[in-house]
Structures are given as structure tokens and as C-alpha cells.
From TrEMBL:
<keyword id="KW-0547">Nucleotide-binding</keyword>
<dbReference type="GO" id="GO:0005524">
    <property type="term" value="F:ATP binding"/>
</dbReference>
<dbReference type="Pfam" id="PF00005">
    <property type="entry name" value="ABC_tran"/>
</dbReference>
<protein>
    <submittedName>
        <fullName>Iron complex transport system ATP-binding protein</fullName>
    </submittedName>
</protein>
<dbReference type="InterPro" id="IPR003439">
    <property type="entry name" value="ABC_transporter-like_ATP-bd"/>
</dbReference>
<keyword id="KW-0067">ATP-binding</keyword>
<dbReference type="InterPro" id="IPR027417">
    <property type="entry name" value="P-loop_NTPase"/>
</dbReference>
<dbReference type="InterPro" id="IPR017871">
    <property type="entry name" value="ABC_transporter-like_CS"/>
</dbReference>
<dbReference type="GO" id="GO:0016887">
    <property type="term" value="F:ATP hydrolysis activity"/>
</dbReference>
<feature type="domain" description="ABC transporter">
    <location>
        <begin position="2"/>
        <end position="229"/>
    </location>
</feature>
<dbReference type="InterPro" id="IPR003593">
    <property type="entry name" value="AAA+_ATPase"/>
</dbReference>
Length: 244
């Protein structure tokens, strides 16, 4: 679904990503974790073909029209440029598909995305006047309306309340169960452990671990990545991981 090979990015003549090999398959929620500035957003932007890179991205190799039918993207910046209604914002997700956003197929996809993000009461409101968390949910709904096999989401739960964080990650898990692939960057390591099938740990532009959450969240790797110890509390729902 997504295949990155020897992908490298330099910015201002500084290496930001180096030799990235990464696969995201159908049915996987792959969590991208690592310190601020490690290169998580850069990896996503390069994989999507939004910035120059060397190496190979199976997604960026597609023609632009097919790329937008293959992957939807929630960028870290939640900028909404125009005073459109929530419904019209979500309809933008249908642009890659024939129908102009108003075919019965488009309307069904928009309705489904609104329902999944519980935005029924917001659909006629001006997106710019929603709260930050509500705007994020509307932008996730736009990505869902795109109905792509792959979803790439950059810190989707940043700014969401705890219940919405859980709802968002449960939704991603459901998408994977439906056969889609999800690549998501997260800073909450406990939630990453609970909801991701695999974790990829990025440090200074290189992948230093890629595997099951328990393996990647080892004391050694966490100390190497973040320079601190983490305390793990196991609950019936999964681990909670606290910085010490
Ligand atoms: N447009 C740019 N020009 C120059 N350097 C950049 C640019 N964008 C990002 N960088 C640098 O690239 C590095 C990786 O940034 P990136 O945003 O990918 O990190 P990140 O892992 O997503 O961080 P965070 O967790 O803080 O969001 C950082 O050192 C950043 O300063």
C-alpha cells in the first residue's frame, strides 16, 4: 500500500531524513513516533510527493490524479483557508473522484464521513468558526470522504479531548480492520501502544526501530530516543506510559 525505499530528504543543505525503508500494508495502523524534529512530518510529506526527496516512494511515483485516490492526508497544520461550511469542507475530499463532489456516490461518502466523525450537528456551520478540536475532526472527515485505501495523519489527536482522542484512534483501528492502511504520527506513547499494530521510531532522521509496540517501547530505545525514562502502567485496556 505504501513502500518507501532509501528515502532521504535534505533541507537547507542539512540532511533531515536518511535511508528510510518503510512499508505500510493493508490492515495495519503504523504509528510513527520520535522526538520533536526527528523528521516525522517530513517523512509523510516526502512519501506523498509534496517535497523533493531522493530514493523511492510508491505513492509519489503515481500520477497526481491517482495519488489522491490512493492516499488521504491530514497535515499537522490544521489551516482552513476559506469560510466554507463544514459540509463543503468535507466535500473537498471528493475532488479526486469524478462527480464534482455532488454525485450520489459523493454525497454518500460525505454523509458517511460526517457520521463517523459525529459532525451531524456541525454540517451547516462555518468551519473557520469551529473550535480547534472541532476543526481537526472536520479535517479528518474530509480525509475520510476521500475514501482512499491509505490514510496518512500527522498528529491527528493533538488538541483533541481524551474522549475524542480515543474515538479517533478507534476509528483508525476500524479503518484498518476494513482493510485500509493507516500511517499516523503520535506523541502519546501509551495510545500508540494501544492502537497501533506496529511502531516505527524515528530519531534524527533515521528509523532506529520498527516492530511490535512492546519491542519498540523498550526502556533502552526510549532512553536513546527521548533521553528520559518512561513508567509503564498496565491496565486492562492496554498500557499507560508516563514520562518520568
Ligand atoms: N521547510 C523547512 N526548511 C528547513 N528545515 C525544515 C523545514 N521543515 C522542517 N525542517 C526541519 O526538519 C527537521 C524535521 O522536521 P519535522 O517537522 O519533520 O519533524 P517532526 O518529527 O514532525 O517534529 P514534531 O514532533 O515537532 O512535529 C527539523 O529539524 C525541522 O527544523
Amino acid at each position: 500500500m505504501l513502500n518507501l525505499h532509501a528515502l532521504s530528504v535534505s533541507r537547507r543543505r542539512r540532511s533531515v531524513l536518511s535511508g528510510i525503508d518503510l512499508q505500510v500494508g493493508a490492515g495495519e495502523v503504523v504509528g510513527l513516533i520520535g522526538p520533536n524534529g526527528a523528521g516525522k512530518s517530513t517523512l509523510m510529506e516526502a512519501a506523498l510527493g509534496l517535497i523533493p526527496f531522493s530514493g523511492r516512494s510508491s505513492l509519489a511515483a503515481l500520477p497526481e490524479s491517482r495519488r489522491a485516490r490512493q492516499a488521504a492526508y491530514l497535515p499537522q497544520s490544521r489551516e482552513i483557508a476559506w469560510p466554507v461550511s463544514v459540509e463543503d469542507l468535507i466535500a473537498l475530499g471528493r475532488i479526486p473522484w469524478p462527480g464534482g463532489g455532488r454525485s450520489p456516490r459523493d454525497l454518500a461518502a460525505i454523509d458517511a464521513a460526517i457520521t463517523r466523525m459525529e459532525l451531524q450537528d456541525y454540517r451547516k456551520r462555518t468551519a473557520l468558526r469551529l473550535s480547534g478540536g472541532e476543526q481537526t475532526r472536520a479535517l479528518i472527515a474530509r480525509a475520510l470522504a476521500q475514501e482512499t485505501p491509505l490514510l496518512i495523519a500527522d498528529e491527528p489527536i493533538a488538541g483533541l479531548d481524551p474522549a475524542q482522542q480515543l474515538a479517533c484512534l478507534r476509528l483508525f483501528r476500524d479503518l484498518a480492520a476494513e482493510g485500509r492502511g493507516v500511517l499516523v504520527s503520535l506523541h502519546d506513547l501509551g495510545l500508540a501502544a494501544r492502537f497501533c499494530s506496529r511502531l516505527v521510531l524515528l530519531v534524527e532522521g533515521r528509523i532506529i526501530a520498527d516492530g511490535p509496540p512492546d519491542q519498540v517501547l523498550s526502556d533502552d530505545l526510549m532512553r536513546r530516543a527521548f533521553g528520559i525514562a518512561l513508567h509503564r502502567i498496565d491496565t486492562p485496556e492496554g498500557p499507560a506510559i508516563l514520562p518520568l
